[in-house]
Amino acid sequence: MSPTLGWKMTAAALRDEVAQALQTFAWAEWSQLGVSGSPPREREERAIDPEALLLFTLEIGRGEPRLFDEVLDWLALNEPLVSVQRLRNLCAGPEDRALVGAALDWSKRTRRRLPHSPGPPFADDLQPLFFAVPPPARDQLDPEFAKHGLARSWLEPSGKSRAPHIREPISFAFRLRRLLGVGVRAEVLRTLLTIRAHQVPGKVIADSAGFAQRNVREGLAQLHEAGVVASQPAGYSTNVAVWAALLEIETAPSMPFHFDWIPTLRALTRIHRWLQRPTLDDLSPYLRASQARTLATEIDGDLRSVVAPLDVYATRGADFWDTFADVTRAAIRAVGHTTA
User: Average per-residue pLDDT in the chain?
Assistant: First the structure.
């Protein structure tokens, strides 16, 4: 381990490292989906989860206003490809719901080309949307964000975004939505086609689909009745070779790869949000490590999707800060396109 890392590293230093790495990842993904930016050298071969990435970026973008605003520009152009219900389903708490509600309301206003209006009176206790940007004067607030408790200046779309290239592996979810509609059946098939397994358990499909289990069961039943999904004792399957031919993908093994985006990005969102707490800088090494242990315990189930199981009791006292930093870096490396 580098001598600059570990519990001797300040919370501010780890905060900056994590924020930079996650912003780099978000830019890399979105630039391949139509957001104005420079795409990475290596093409993403995994099928992205659009709503999981969008929810994650609404948090990460609070430290990178240009990323936040360009993703909103993309949303206003491509919202018909986005499952609003699924996006709301993925919200894990009031902070997520406020960000999603503001983004969707802004997108609706932009798509309808509504005029600039101050809107109704706003509460006095608005929270700044961006971490390092002072909130504007009340007469300059964007009303769609203000009504969700967030203060930012009025935003106009940049108009730089484009539609995603749906034949790219990263855009596989959008291609299936064009074929099957924006709903549970497209998410079920995305899971079955990208997971390299003969049979996929129903729980795995439900977790990846991002809809209520009842809706997933109904979607599976409909696809089974249509003859494109087989129900087996250990789970479900579909004929990947037939789908590859239909979608003009060269071979079945050339299908985009699956990745557990929902739990991984949810865990990284929690870590990023926790590191933004200014009080962390004032804590003793022991108390800081103790609070990190509490967070690690809460998100352990999500982290297990991409890193080895974390024994939060194996490292004692202030030394747990080392473990927490290492696990965070491992999760960031797992999502790829970062230097963490």
Answer: 91
| pLDDT per position as a tens digit, 245-289 | 999 998 777 899 999 999 999 999 999 999 999 899 899 999 999
CB 170 within 8 A of CB 33: yes
Give the C-alpha separation, 231 to 201, whole Å: 10
pTM of the predicted protein model: 0.92
**Number of neighbours of residue 14 by Cβ within 10 angstroms:** 23
For the chain, domains (ranges, CATH) are: 11-151 (no CATH), 169-254 (1.10.10.10), 283-335 (no CATH)
Predicted confidence at residue 116, as pLDDT, reads 64
Asked if residues 128 and 135 have their Cβ atoms less than 8 Å apart, the reply is: yes
User: By C-alpha distance, which of 285, 259, 272 is closest to 49?
Assistant: 259
| Interatomic CA distance for residues 293 and 8, integer angstroms | 16
- Tokens 């504007």 belong to residue: 136
How far apart CA 302 and CA 331 sit, in angstroms, is 10
Report d(CA 330, CA 340) in Å as an integer. 8
What φ, ψ does residue 141 adopt, rounded to 5°? -70, 145
Contact 291, 280 (CB under 8 A): yes
Q: Residue 314 above 50 pLDDT?
A: yes
Q: DSSP string spanning 266-309?
A: HHHHHHHHHHT-GGGGGS-HHHHHHHHHHHHHHHHHHHTTTSPP
pLDDT at 1: 37
Question: What pLDDT does 18 receive?
Answer: 97
